[in-house]
Design brief:
The protein is mostly helical and 105 residues long. The protein has a domain at 8-45: Orthogonal Bundle (Histone, subunit A). It contains four helices and two strands, in the order αααββα. It has helices at residues 8-17, 24-45, 76-80, 100-103; strands at 86-87, 90-91. β1 and β2 (90-91) form a beta hairpin. α1 crosses α2.
Length: 105
C-alpha cells in the first residue's frame, strides 16, 4: 500500500467505519493530511530493525514494591472514631442501590 494514493473515497470510507460525521470540506482537508501521515509511517518502516528487541517503553521499568510485613492493626475504637455513623463494629452508610431514588424514572 505504500504506492497507493489516499483518495477522498478512502477518507469517506474510514469516516463511515469510525462513525464520524465529516463535512465534504473536512474530508477534502483530511485527505492530504492522511496521505502525509501514511508517508511518515512508510518512512519509519524503512528503518532496519534487524536484531532489535520489541519493547513497550524506551526505558526499562520495574515495579518498586515494599516487603509485605504483618503488623498489628488499629484498635476498633480508633478505626470507628471518625465515622459519622456506626452500627456496632460496622460503618453505617446510606443505601446506594435499591433506594427510593432508584425507582424514579
Amino acid at each position: 500500500m505504500p504506492d497507493k494514493q489516499i483518495t477522498l473515497e478512502d477518507v469517506r470510507h474510514v469516516a463511515k467505519l469510525a462513525r464520524l460525521a465529516l463535512s465534504e470540506s473536512q474530508m477534502q482537508t483530511l485527505t492530504p493530511q492522511l496521505a502525509s501521515i501514511l508517508g511518515y509511517v512508510a518512512k519509519v518502516s524503512e528503518a532496519d530493525t534487524t536484531g532489535v528487541e520489541p519493547m513497550a517503553h524506551a526505558l526499562p521499568l520495574h515495579n518498586v514494591l515494599r516487603d509485605d510485613v504483618v503488623e498489628p492493626s488499629l484498635p476498633l475504637d480508633k478505626v470507628l472514631q471518625n465515622a459519622p455513623e456506626t452500627d456496632g463494629s460496622f460503618f453505617k452508610v446510606p443505601k446506594v442501590i435499591g433506594g427510593d431514588d432508584d425507582s424514579a424514572g
